[in-house]
Amino acid sequence: MTLKIKNPGLATSIQDLGRIGYFHLGIPIGGAMDRYALRAANMLVGNDEGAACLEAVFMGPEIEFTETATVAVTGAELPIKVDGEIQDSWSSFVVKAGQTLSFGFLQSGARIYIAVSGGITTPEALGSRSTYPIGALGGVEGRAIQAGDELPTGGTQGAGAGRTVADSLRRKPDTPARLRVLPGLYWHRLTDEAGAAFFEDEWKVAPEADRMGYRFKGGRPLEFVDREQPFGAGADPSNIVDGCYSYGSIQVPGGTEPIVLHRDAVSGGGYFTLGAIISADMDLIGQLQPHTPVKFEKVDMDQSLAARRDRKAMLERIRQDLS
Amino acid sequence: MAQVLSPLPGTFYTKPSPEAEVFKSEGAAVAVGDTIALVEVMKTFIEIKSEIAGTFTSYLIEDGTPVQAGQALAEVAG
């Protein structure tokens, strides 16, 4: 069974749960920006939770099916159509051989995950099908999908129509979006006033936000504690002697616009990082449109781990509901 | 009268570059597939093309402002 791509959308790519174990070599984990939504989509159609799906951002693709399959679309609210007929999001439906899946205008959120029964079965690269365009790994020849591509799938019939994720388990950002931050190793570089301002101010997602990093604008510029410039660090007060970056870490070049490193992150560099978005909130960032208002909220390690447990419990409830 | 809608969120531009003329002025002929405006998102400029032929009426929002998916960008008299 193949998926014929008639129109690819904006930057639609094949993603799974990522390429684990190569960050120390500079190759990021990649994978779905919103992993929760990808897992839910796969569960709805009866796939393994980590099967490869299509991740589409802001605009949906147009896809013709060569065989009948079960399909589910989760994440953002983007009207789903099968030969023009509207389908429910976060629910399974059947697309018959010869029918076309297409989408309307984005209503909320940023990214959809399209799971097809059997999963997309393009070749793995370093243990994952996730597309990492900068490293030309995974996906279709290491790139986003294009018109004319024919994507192979596992070709199973799947779990059938009518399975759904309860409203209370469809995780979406609030307005303003609330992103929890664990302050990090370089927090001491900020003045107390600047540290407080970072959490007080409302920020907005910048249009250049992408899979590598989500940039934010609109808060007060950060002020730094005076220092003697260490050997090997740049002259700007936001520079450090090069260090490792974590996923979710927040760098602020020049102290003006925070950038949260996301799934396709660089692994290190010379900017201080004030902390990191907690793992439980990384998925939410994947659903933020440009210009969305955002508040950062300070948490400690106990709160971060509790949030991770809460998110796991939500996934477990979906598993139970669909088992 | 038909409206040209933005297929995606981003920043709206009426010109191909800051120094250039607008894509369409009032009264200009519009053919199907003509570029009417740009929307910038994720470091990419997406050309917004007309799906109808006719005469350009006006832009509905200002150059350089944020837009949402589905928002009306311009009007064309068919």
Automatic annotation (TrEMBL), chain A:
Gene3D superfamilies the UniProt entry points to? Cyclophilin-like
- On whether Hydrolase is a keyword of this UniProt record, the answer is yes
Residues in Carboxyltransferase domain copies? 24-314
Q: Which GO terms describe its molecular function?
A: ATP binding; hydrolase activity
Residues of the region (Disordered) are 149-171
Q: Which domain of life is it from?
A: Bacteria
Q: Name one Pfam family in it.
A: CT_A_B
Alphabetized, the UniProt keywords read: ATP-binding, Hydrolase, Nucleotide-binding
Q: What is this protein called?
A: Urea carboxylase
Please report the organism this UniProt entry assigns to the protein.
Pacificibacter maritimus
Automatic annotation (TrEMBL), chain B:
Q: Name one Pfam family in it.
A: Biotin_lipoyl
UniProt entry tagged with the keyword Hydrolase: no
Q: Which Gene3D superfamilies match?
A: 2.40.50.100
Q: Which UniProt keywords apply?
A: Biotin, Fatty acid biosynthesis, Fatty acid metabolism, Lipid biosynthesis, Lipid metabolism
- SUPFAM superfamilies recorded for this chain? Single hybrid motif
Q: In which pathway does it act?
A: Lipid metabolism; fatty acid biosynthesis
Q: Name one GO biological process term.
A: fatty acid biosynthetic process
- One GO term of the cellular component aspect? acetyl-CoA carboxylase complex
Q: Which InterPro entries match?
A: AcCoA_biotinCC, Biotin_BS, Biotin_lipoyl, Single_hybrid_motif
Where is each Lipoyl-binding domain found?
Answer: 1-77
GO MF terms here are: acetyl-CoA carboxylase activity
Function, as annotated = This protein is a component of the acetyl coenzyme A carboxylase complex; first, biotin carboxylase catalyzes the carboxylation of the carrier protein and then the transcarboxylase transfers the carboxyl group to form malonyl-CoA.
Would you tell me the protein name for this molecule? Biotin carboxyl carrier protein of acetyl-CoA carboxylase
Q: Which organism is it from?
A: Pacificibacter maritimus
* Phylogenetic lineage: Bacteria, Pseudomonadati, Pseudomonadota, Alphaproteobacteria, Rhodobacterales
